[in-house]
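agent> fetching stored inputs for the adenosine monophosphate docking request
agent> found them:
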Amino acid sequence: MIIEEAAAAATVEDQEIISWFEGVAENAGLVQTQTLRRIIELNHGTEYLQKWLGGDLRVQDLEPGALESLFISSVPLACHADHEPYIQRIADGDTSPILTQEPVTTLSLSSGTTDGRPKYVPFTRFSSQSTLQIFRLGAAYRSKVFPIRAGGRILEFIYSSKQFKTKGGLAAGTATTHYFASEEFKTKQKSTKCFTCSPYEVIAGADYKQSTYCHLLLGLAFCDQVEFATSTFAYSIVQAFASFEELWEELCGDLRGGTLSPRITSPEMRRAVMDCLSPNPSLASKVEKKCRELEGSDWGSLIPKLWPNAKYIYSIMTGSMQPYLKKLRHYAGYLPLVCADYGSTESWIGVNLEPYDPPERVTFTVIPTFSYFEFIPLYTRNKQDNSNLVVTDDFVEGEPLPLSQVKVGQQYEIALTTFTGLYRYRLGDVVEVAGFYKGAPKLTFICRRKLILTVNIDKSTERDLQIAVEKGSGLLSQTRAEVVDFTSHADLAAHPGHYVIYWEIKGEAADGVLEACCREMDAAFADHGYVVSRKTGSIGPLELRILESGTFRKILEYYIGNGATMSQFKTPRCTTNQVLLKILDRCTVKSFRSTAYG
Ligand code: AMP
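agent> prediction call returned; pasting tokens
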């Protein structure tokens, strides 16, 4: 179905938000100029903008286009570190207009948590409102292709993290935590006519294992009403069903008796869950029978077998979530995997208008009212090194372009100017323009920009690592083993330095197969710098380390203990964090070195 046909079949409410979006998409360039004007009008009195734009700017005297040019020529591109001193003062209680005219009362933790260091960004009412808006918009397009029953339920694996106060008394936590606690989250359920199975006390429970147990139990209790299963990032769904494989008997016991396992120790969570439960022996027997069958088939199609009315699975499945797709498809069986929208703690960016597209093809259409977006063109530089071999250097950047000037097929880094006080802020994501929907670019998410593995002249990205692991783990298909999760490290302490890739695997694989996997991964890193250095021996053979079962769970717990949330957790694909490296070292049970380059 094409987008226009989908829109034609919409209900009044859905049609309203679709029409709004079509209008802004049609005039995306103009809307962007107006969005920037609005941001400057609201915040030109702030310390940050006064520093760059001067204290005597009269916004009303300038045409929107002239204001846009002035802004771009006066305010520099910046990264988180440039905003950090300002944000720190806000966190410490300075209420003067530093980044925004309105005082910031809440701070969010952005994906800096994956580097082991929390990155604060301001969170305002606008953040929750835009979340509600993109969720309603995405739901409107989705319901045309995959209609769901009004009043149905969502099996939602969502989690809040610990909220705490900064030195200056501001509430701090992850963006999803703030959102789940907001009025907008309740409004979303009402306006999309679909309600999460779990009460708020389960979402807000501080222990993700207890919350997962209750999400699963209530999901089973309401199994016939569940219309779809979801989480913010796909990792949480895969984790939840991996736990289900271990917990199902206990869950069936609770379902039968209307009881709650003693593993739930939070009194609030216990009370809230018990209010939703009553003994249901017939459902428990039915679920138990299905689970016994599923156990025999390695839990394939678990979701549609236990939730017979589920229409699809909905989550972020792109980027660093791609390695979990295989497992997700295994649990999902014939159910379509629908990709959730593209955004970050800093700002929402694009909506998925084509829910029927599989994760491998999905694009995100930029919403031009959410922030002012700039696109920094990235070109791959080929340069001659001393040995006259062509090595691929890091990206070369072109001049930042407004949304209306991007080119199909070109890759860009996104920079954001937001209503929450970030100005020309490099997000660090690489996207490619796949086309346009009316005047708004459709983006494919490529990867995080930061190079993750480098020993000397080599430059390997998260994407390169992902491809290498896909190739290496492909050889495991001969066995009954599979890679549960992975990470990596460039070991520079050893001479020569080399890449170390850590795998946790489920099932048994012979050493010979793992040796072959290690070789395959070494050969798969295609960066010229890597290939040349491996050939000359200035980078040593890649090392594959096999970890004991449960290692990545320990890593997750380490991050959650440091303020990350299960809802936004992304396994660090490369680490230099000493605590993590110690965990990885302690949990290594086997190690192999590649023979790929002789
Ligand atoms: P966080 O700071 O935890 O909100 O994470 C935001 C980051 O997650 C983004 O900058 C992206 O790198 C990644 N991300 C968010 N949405 C998507 C998506 N739909 N596809 C791929 N990556 C995504």
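agent> quick read of the result: Residues 152 and 560 are 31 Å apart (CA to CA).
agent> awaiting further instructions
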